[in-house]
Amino acid sequence: MRSLCVRFFIFRRYKTISKESLINEEIRAKEVRLLDVDGQQLGIVSIQDALAKAAEHNLDLVNISPNAVPPVCRIMDYGKFRYEQQKKEKEAKKKQKTMEVKEIRLGIFTEFHDLETKATTAAKFLQNGDKVKINMRLRGREMGYVDKGKESMLKFGEMLSEYGNVEKNPILEGRNMSMTITPKSEKEKEKAAKAARLAAKAAEEAAKAAESESTQTQE
């Protein structure tokens, strides 16, 4: 009966996760390092014994570390494993956000107050993980103030330095000038936050030292 069970087990076929993720009879190694369902090591055994052990539990033998010598195989419910893996992949895709390119239009003589308002809008886009493309259309005699336009754009980029990095400096193409800003990565955000905390701490310590020195002077 056991022999029949093992034979039936060997002929079960499943699609593999990848070329490296072999299961059951697809595993060609003569010996494997075997892990049980709970991940506990059962030592190095022959592939036949590993398959038989998996068959005893009516489960699958999965090669989880093909590059190891010998390869590491684990006894598991492969169907359940694939289902959970696919479920995680779907959830990860839902969480992934496609980066969009949002557009902000500036005038060559845009006032500082208006720049601040537009910068607030651009900051929201960047915080949401989108790129921001700054466009400026030069009309008529405004072509004589290209440097002024570049200055305004760079100033705008500085106003957003907390939220993004200038990916492409102002470029003039015909009568259109543009600049692209990309959102900061999580690592950059953490680094900036750490720098801000250190700066705040240093300022606090400097204020305390100044206060202490002032008190001693008065005494």
- Distance between the amino and carboxyl termini: 98 Å
What name goes with the CATH superfamily of the largest domain?
Translation initiation factor 3 (IF-3), C-terminal domain
Largest sheet, if any?
Answer: 4 strands, mixed
Shape: elongated
What does this structure look like?
This protein is of the alpha/beta class and 219 residues long. The protein is built from six helices and eight strands, in the order αββαββαβαβαββα. Strands 2-1-4-3 form a four-stranded mixed beta sheet. Helix 1 crosses helix 2.
List the helices and strands and how they pair.
Blueprint: H1 2-10, E1 31-35, E2 41-46, H2 47-56, E3 60-65, E4 72-76, H3 78-95, E5 101-106, H4 112-127, E6 131-137, H5 146-159, E7 164-173, E8 176-183, H6 186-218
Parallel strand pairs: 1-4, 5-6
Antiparallel strand pairs: 1-2, 3-4, 6-8, 7-8
Helix pairs in contact: 1-2
In short:
By secondary structure, the chain is of the alpha/beta class. Helices cover 46% and strands 24% of the residues.
Write a concise keyword list for the protein shown above:
219 residues; alpha/beta; Ubiquitin-like (UB roll); Translation Initiation Factor IF3; 2 domains; 4-stranded mixed β-sheet; 6 helices; 8 strands; disordered N terminus
